[in-house]
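thought: fold this chain, then report.
action: predict
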Amino acid sequence: MNLSFLPREIYAAVRNLNVNKLSEIRLREGQPVMAEYCGEYIYLGLGGVCTREGAVVCRDVAGTLNRAMGGCVYSHAEELKEGFVTVEGGVRIGIAGEYITENGRVRTIARPSSLNIRIPHDVEGCSEVICRTLFAGGLKSVLVFSRPGCGKTTVLRDLARQVSRMFRTNVLVLDVRNEIGGAGGYDLGETVDVVRSGDKLAALESAVRAMKPDVIITDELYGPADADAVKFAKDCGMHIMASSHVCQREYLASMPFDCYVKLVAIGSEPEIYDKDFNIVCNNSTYDVCGGTAFGR
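observation:
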């Protein structure tokens, strides 16, 4: 993955870390650089992990963001309305600054002051326990949920790959944030097609007609419009596999899924529930399920 858009000192510091253990880099104007590394937040210095006193200080948030976008704000205009951009290699950058609104909606972000640079990972096989537990009798619609940063996108990416291999069926990945497969160059499988769009319902309606998928995988369901998109696909006889930051079970249970998977933390085993939220598999039943190690 290419992180060369980072300021020279910060880029040099990152190169002294094991990128496989790096989840995100936090840049705040005039503040020490921090990173989530091995599941903990650390200060980042020229030699890698360091104390606060030895940390590199970020002094060019706006320039860093501009370089990450290749100097072309226009091409990322729609993403900026959502508070992030996804750049080469599937690296997603969350942005804090001055949100310019118009007619009750964010139009763009001016004077960025902080960046949350999230590092994508591809962990082949991380969804195997989910597939073996839930798909022994055939495909089902699955919602993967957790708080941010627990590996939902990584699991969806591997679900696409595993379903393609296991069932040899047509899988459509609706990659709204360009993270599952669109910008990362990931091998998702021979029977997987990728569609990128910011409007789930409109994209699904077109893709269903154009590509005739059997399974649809998409990220981050939130709000009535996304629920309508899921219902549309289910009504068309397709299986849906999606993710959500929302963890409220009453809300999740109102959506048309056959089962639910809760990710607790990176490195922990998933908790698997049926459509009524009865436990199917968790840490205590994991050996019975015959799972493999779960990671991001």
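thought: worth noting. The chain has two domains: 8-118, 128-289.
final: tokens above.
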